[in-house]
Amino acid sequence: MKTLEEMNREELLEIIEVKNQIIKELETEIALYQKLIEEIKNKYIENNRK
């Protein structure tokens, strides 16, 4: 049977793993929004040149 310390350690490792996955997903989402903002900015610049 696992000790409380071992169980806590495993739970913390799982939490860290989930948090790291969430961070990766957020970074991907941020990158997509940055690309979208850049495209909108370029469209805006292009439209104002006309």
Describe what you observe in this structure:
- Helix content is 92%, strand content 0%.
- With 50 residues, it is an all-alpha fold.
- It starts with a helix and ends with a helix.
- 0% of the residues are buried.
- The mean pLDDT is 95.
Topology:
Elements: H1 4-49
Task: State the order of secondary-structure elements, H for helix, E for strand.
Answer: H
- How confident is the prediction overall: mean pLDDT? 95
Beta-strand content = under 5%
Task: Extract low-pLDDT stretches.
Answer: none
Comma- or semicolon-separated keywords:
mainly alpha, single chain, rod-shaped, 92% helix, 50 residues, 1 helix
Give the gist of this structure:
With 50 residues, the chain is mainly α.
